[in-house]
Amino acid sequence: AVIIDNDGTLHKHEEYLEAGRRAEMKFIASSIGCFSISEAEKIVMVRRCRLGRDGKKATLTQAVKSFGISRSDWDGARESCYDPERFLVRDEALVKAVESLMGRYRVAIASNNAKKITIRALKQLGFGRLLDRLLVIGPEDVCANKADPQYFIRTAALLKVKPEACITVGDRRESDGDPAINVGMGSILVSSPEVT
Predict the structure, then answer these.
(1) Bridge-partner residues for 167, per DSSP?
(2) Which long-range contacts (CB under 8 A, 24 or more apart) does 21-27 make?
(3) Residue 44: enclosing H or E segment and its boundaries?
(4) Which residues, other chains included, contact 147 with Cβ-Cβ below 8 Å and sequence gap of 6+?
(5) Which of these, 96, 179, 98, lies nearest to 144 by C-alpha position?
(6) Which of 34, 149, 164, 169 has the smallest number of Cβ neighbours within 10 A?
(7) What would the pLDDT profile of 57-105 be if each residue is shown by its tens digit?
(8) How far apart are CA 32 and CA 43, in angstroms?
(9) Model's pTM, two decimal places?
(10) What is the distance between the alpha carbons of residues 7 and 17, in angstroms, rounded to a whole number?
(11) Pairwise CA distance, residues 75 & 25, whole Å
(12) Dist CA 59 CA 55 (whole Å)
């Protein structure tokens, strides 16, 4: 089975990602009582470093949860923060490549974003006709985020395969690579969607 990351792997639209990140920080700033986004960014970075282990920062979601923001509030905020319809465009070559993989393997698109955001992004990229055959995974489906090895174990279970029968494709070692390898999966790190 192949587990493919969405943001940064299937697409890498910097303006889309940056607009989403800014909107996330604006939400966090208002939730924790900061006067500015830059103040919130500093507080979040310190929290991510403190929560991290083995020299790696914790994920943004882990930091958000540590501020007492519920998963449902965070997911709801993120749904309004990201606007794939405004930024992403159809990529037929990408769709054909994934469809080709689907002819040989079980395929999941796995994201740390809420599943609704990922589905919206996939539709914009041109995957609409494949969504009934493509497993789309968000943290709410596996009760974990990608930095947690359980994310990958549970995704493999949803694909009805053992972790050892999976390979992940992603752009970040700390969330797409190392946790997958730690549960026995193979992993391919890519630097851009063109490599994917």
Answers:
(1) 2, 186
(2) 23/80, 23/81, 23/82, 24/60, 24/77, 24/78, 24/81, 27/77, 27/81
(3) helix 37-51
(4) 56, 58, 59, 62, 174, 175, 179
(5) 179
(6) 164
(7) 888 988 999 999 998 899 889 889 999 999 999 999 999 999 999 999 9
(8) 10
(9) 0.87
(10) 8
(11) 13
(12) 13
